[in-house]
Amino acid sequence: MKRRTFLKGTVASSALAVAAGAGLLKSGQVLAADWAADAFNARDLASATKSAVGGDGAASADIKIKAPLQAENGAVVPVKVETSLADVKSIAIMVAENPTPLATKVDLSGNAVGFYSTRVKMGKTSEIIAYVNSGGKILKSTATVKVTVGGCGG
Amino acid sequence: MNKKLILMLAGLGIAFSAPMTASATPEDDLKEFQGYFKKRFPTVPLEAYNDGVNALPQYADRVGNWELLMEFPPYEDDVEKGEKLWNTPFKNGKTYASCFQNGGKGLAVGYPFYDKDSKKMRTIEADINECRVRNGEEPIKNLNHGKMAQLVIAFKRLSQGQKMAVKLNSPEAVAAYEKGKQFYWARRGQLNFSCANCHVQNAGNKIRGDVLSAALGHGTGFPVYRTKWAQSNKPLGTIHRRYGGCNKQVRAAALKPQSDPYVALELYQAYMNTGIPIKVPSQRQ
Amino acid sequence: MATKIKARAKGDVTEILVLVQHPMETGQRKDKKTAKLIPAHFIQTMNIAVNGKSVADVSMGTGVSKNPLVGVQVKGAKSGEKIKVTWKDNKGETGGGDSAIK
């Protein structure tokens, strides 16, 4: 019995080829399987929140955001989210006034605890909202970070 | 010359609380200068001035930026690169350490200084390039950022934590010191500010959205990693790079790094920093 | 592009900090010299695994700062356990690094 050899590459790349042909891929954007394009490209807070975590949630005092009251430089604003809530499945950080509010999201597993630290870009004074998925329930906390025009460029 | 400067500033209606007596010695200046800041910021110990604006109580709502960034400092890559450069032998097999007493350890506390042999003020940048030339290498051209900044960091880290102790032990050194002091207190540029207007008289006050850092300690954290400079991929800067930037901001002409006036200015500042530990590099806005 | 990893004990958790040298271009910035838009170039996904087990799947957009930092905390990590970080950006470029819990 003769063995058929499939041409290498055609099967593996077919999904991408179809997507590109159909115009689904934006230029410069590879279809990374785990990257929620809808959520990251959403331009208003409500749709970004819906896409990222499913919808708004109640404020929780058990979620703490550590961020400076005033940014030193809007290009690098450190943000830390800590929560004592149980069964933290994910933490999402939004910058409400940014053109695309969803900055980042982490899906936690294994021995990871309710903690996420990163540095975000802020165009102007804005609320930073941390959404925590605790056992399937969405809760949030908010902090305002001021961004002012610098005085000492140089 | 000092009397003229005082009269000029007084005539412009600026009250300043750091008077310069015409016959002051550098030691007198130092006492007055550090005394002024002790009075202005009573809760800030001398040693803390190497953290710049972060040491000031007026920066409390923003110091979190720096504290959080320090958990994983953005300059670590540059520090590693500088160390590598410092330890990599020249084509002739020798290393930078061979040019300096004690391999360079503990020396940064005495820079800048007047060298009788070359009859010149020596800065760390000048000596790094001198070391290169003596060992058959080309001097580094860019004295503002990049490799030179990384090497200056490596050199100063050999004195990390040690207190500044510049000596003015020759008439030439004192003359350079006086030139630097004049530069510091003279108004310049279209905005007509002196370094002192912002960093002495208005230290801790706001200038638009920023808080002005205190003059005391300036340089002890340099070379600096500036977030602002990082956005255009040139995050590191030597103190002369910053001098140029500051001069431009008051719409004065920026001088070339390592030019005589900047070297004199660096000497004045380094002497005013006597007793403050070296802490390099620093991260600033 | 270099990936740096730090792991340190903080009470009963281990904090893992990852710093990647990456431009995180938004695609909205103009090149000063050519006046052309610099194309978007940013990390989209990152995975952190400890002792072979995934602990965090990070996704990020252009709102994350240049040279992005990611920090997570894990419980019960033992000294010597391996940390593995892998990431992928919008251009399909990948990177990562390895470290160990001290």
Question: Could you outline the blueprint of secondary structure elements for this entry?
Answer:
The complex is a heterotrimer of chains A (154), B (285) and C (102).
Chain A: H1 10-21, H2 37-41, H3 45-53, E1 58-59, E2 63-66, E3 77-83, E4 88-95, E5 102-108, E6 115-120, E7 126-134, E8 137-145
Chain B: H1 2-11, H2 26-40, H3 63-69, H4 76-87, E1 113-115, E2 120-122, H5 124-134, H6 146-157, H7 171-185, H8 195-201, E3 206-207, E4 210-211, E5 224-226, H9 227-230, E6 236-237, H10 239-249, H11 260-272, E7 282-284
Chain C: E1 3-10, E2 13-20, E3 43-50, E4 53-60, E5 69-75, E6 82-89, E7 94-100
Antiparallel strand pairs in C: 1-2, 2-5, 3-4, 3-6, 6-7
TL;DR of this structure?
The complex is a heterotrimer of chains A (154), B (285) and C (102). By secondary structure, chain A is an alpha+beta fold.
Q: In this structure, how is the largest beta sheet of chain C organized?
A: 4 strands, antiparallel
Encode the helix/strand succession of chain C as letters.
EEEEEEE
Give the name of the CATH superfamily of chain C. Answer: Immunoglobulins
Task: Bin the strand percentage of chain A.
Answer: 25-35%
Please state the oligomeric state of the protein chains shown: heterotrimer
State the strand order across the main sheet of chain C: 4-3-6-7
Q: Any key phrases for this structure?
A:
heterotrimer; A: 154 residues; alpha+beta; Immunoglobulin-like; five-stranded mixed β-sheet; three-stranded antiparallel β-sheet; globular; C: 102 residues; mainly beta; four-stranded antiparallel β-sheet; 7 strands; 0% helix; elongated
